[in-house]
Amino acid sequence: MLQKKPLILVTNDDGITAPGIRTLIEVMNEIGEVLVVAPDSPQSGMGHAITVNDTLFCDKVIVEKNAPQMEYSCSGTPVDCVKLAVNEIMKRKPDLCVSGINHGSNSSINVIYSGTMSAAVEAGTMGIPSIGFSLLDYSLDANFEPVKPFVKKLALECLENGLPKGVVLNVNFPKLAEKEIKGVKVCRQAKAHWIENFEERRNPLGRRYYWLTGEFINEDKGEDTDEWALKNGFVSVVPVQFDLTAHHAIQDINSWNL
Amino acid sequence: MLQKKPLILVTNDDGITAPGIRTLIEVMNEIGEVLVVAPDSPQSGMGHAITVNDTLFCDKVIVEKNAPQMEYSCSGTPVDCVKLAVNEIMKRKPDLCVSGINHGSNSSINVIYSGTMSAAVEAGTMGIPSIGFSLLDYSLDANFEPVKPFVKKLALECLENGLPKGVVLNVNFPKLAEKEIKGVKVCRQAKAHWIENFEERRNPLGRRYYWLTGEFINEDKGEDTDEWALKNGFVSVVPVQFDLTAHHAIQDINSWNL
Fold this sequence. Notes:
Chain A is of the alpha/beta class. Chain A has 6 helices and 13 strands.
């Protein structure tokens, strides 16, 4: 059992005022001492971007009056927020980093585009137990109530058990009422990809521009995937690693004539 | 053996006029039909970011007079460039995607921050054999001559043999003369992380801001890593996967009380 109050870093990619992060802060305040460092504006789709060619602002802010947590609003990406929090703002390494709750899915291949998950991964590279949470509902008025007990349970289990070295968790919630959620499944990432359909338009000066729109293609029929779990009413938990080495392919490439 | 001229997509993260991509285009023109879609400005450290909250411009440009390749300059990230190229610009799926040659290392954990590698990974998710190339020299006047024969050889081998499903290559070159390079080693990604030292300054109005600076910490003593290979005069080739599932950790997390 934990002896003292754990120190918890909270961040996200939808921005510091998004309902998802406000819910996450509320739940974390039941568990430990909370410090928030989150983007000052939406950073969806920023992946593991860091700010190398520009300056970073990071200011103490009060989002909720009389709230127990300290909060910092940062001009950078979710990964910048974690780097600033751990290396510049926090007096000691946090016991847990949680990111989200993202408005929208980060299951399957979406993990690589996700600012929410990249923030969790960044904390993981620093040896901090870390979880990214996402709800399959993009709307700003998404209902986060049903997922609160699961967020709390997962955070407590993570604090209690720790995580294997080099591993962080990607947690996605189906858009369901609490009693409709069938449980939690530990899964693998489904094999899927996007096919983009760029929408072409002209600006007032006649110059062509595009909006990125795409179609998610799940090519994976497995019943042990996050996509399957979510479609069947389960919370999906995928252990994610940042050693990207395809160890199984080393022998294959070694057969090349190099 | 290849029957017809392969179609090769070239991109990078340093921008379309960077010496690294000009070298890559030159080598690829010896192998096949080349199409370039690359960022209109430096996009280092953009990781797997995509442009979801803004418009994208992508215009045909002539960078070199009378060059055989078609080139497009794009306002987005390296991953946007690949998505636009494959889904909007190219008449058919390319036979190969090459990204780089990056000015600076993308070995070890740097792979997750790298726009160069994320472009290669994005093409990989679309089933396109794909290689990211980087030279361990950040300077704009880096000497790319020594690496040309290796780039050509690797691209030809990749076209001939293909790559295992779900795998792309992360190739890094030491900063050495050609005759000093000892050969090519297929490696795993070294376990390493960054410790940031943010440089704090004040803007003319007195507001605090930061520049990200950091120290690379290689905690890996293995002699089968990319860091070891590069330090010992070899070209490193790491097969990289975008299935981020830590399969070995699934059983562990399943023991949690969820």
